[in-house]
Design brief:
Radius of gyration: 22 Å
Order of helices and strands: EEEHHEHHEHHH
Strand order of the largest sheet: 1-2-3-4-5
Structural class: alpha+beta
Largest sheet: 5 strands, antiparallel
Shape: globular
Number of strands: 5
C-alpha cells in the first residue's frame, strides 16, 4: 500500500551482446530464493523466435513494434524465464567450461547462451530515438510521401523493381541492405 520494497539479486552469469546474437542476458537469483531468473533484452526478430507460444501470436506486441518502427524508433524486447536450481546448475557447468576456453571462446559462450535463451516470456518493449542513425525519420517520411506514386508505377514496372530488389536490396545471404529510395524511384520513373 504505497510502501516500496527493495529486492536484492545476485548476478551469476552474463551472456554478452554481439552482432550475431543480437541480444544480451543475465542470470540472477533473488536473495533467499532457490530459483533463478534469466533476463534477456534483444532485437525483436531474435526475441520473437525465442518467445513462448502465445494464443494471439503476440499481436499487441507486434502492433506496438510496427507503430514504433514507423516512428523511426529503435526497439528492444525484454523477456525472462525462470530456471530451477537443477537447470541452472547444469547450464552453469557448460557456461563455466566455455568461459575457460582459449580458442573460440565467444562462439562457445554463444552456443551455451543459446541453450538457455529459449521459451521466453516477453515482458515488454523499449523504444528510443536512435541518434546514431541520422536521417531515419526523414527517410520514413520520404517513403510515405512517394509510396502512392511508387505503387502506381509498380504495376507498370514490376520487372525493374524485381531486378532492383534482387540485385540491390537483398544481399547474397538473404540479408536486407540499406538502399537510397530515390534510386529505385528514378529507375521506376525512367525505366
Amino acid at each position: 500500500s504505497g510502501q516500496s520494497q527493495t529486492l536484492r539479486y545476485q548476478v551469476h552469469a552474463t551472456n554478452e551482446f554481439n552482432s550475431t546474437r543480437k541480444r544480451q542476458s543475465v542470470v540472477v537469483q533473488k536473495e533467499g530464493s532457490q530459483d533463478y531468473l534469466l533476463l534477456v533484452k534483444g532485437a525483436d526478430n531474435v526475441m520473437l523466435e525465442r518467445a513462448q507460444a502465445s494464443p494471439d501470436g503476440n499481436r499487441d506486441l507486434r502492433d506496438h513494434l510496427k507503430e514504433f518502427s514507423t516512428q523511426g524508433l529503435r526497439t528492444l524486447l525484454i523477456g525472462s524465464r525462470k530456471l530451477s536450481a537443477a537447470e541452472f546448475q547444469q547450464w552453469l557447468s557448460g557456461y563455466q567450461q566455455a568461459n575457460r576456453e582459449t580458442a573460440n571462446r565467444e562462439d562457445k559462450l554463444g552456443a551455451v547462451a543459446e541453450q538457455v535463451e529459449t521459451n521466453l516470456e516477453l515482458l515488454g518493449i523499449t523504444a528510443i530515438e536512435d541518434k546514431l542513425q541520422k536521417g531515419v525519420p526523414k527517410t520514413i517520411e520520404r517513403i510515405r510521401e512517394v509510396s502512392g506514386e511508387f505503387f502506381h508505377r509498380l504495376q507498370l514496372r514490376r520487372g525493374i523493381v524485381r531486378d532492383f530488389v534482387q540485385n540491390q536490396l537483398v544481399g547474397p545471404q538473404g540479408d536486407v541492405r540499406s538502399i537510397d529510395v530515390t534510386i529505385l524511384l528514378d529507375r521506376v520513373r525512367g525505366g
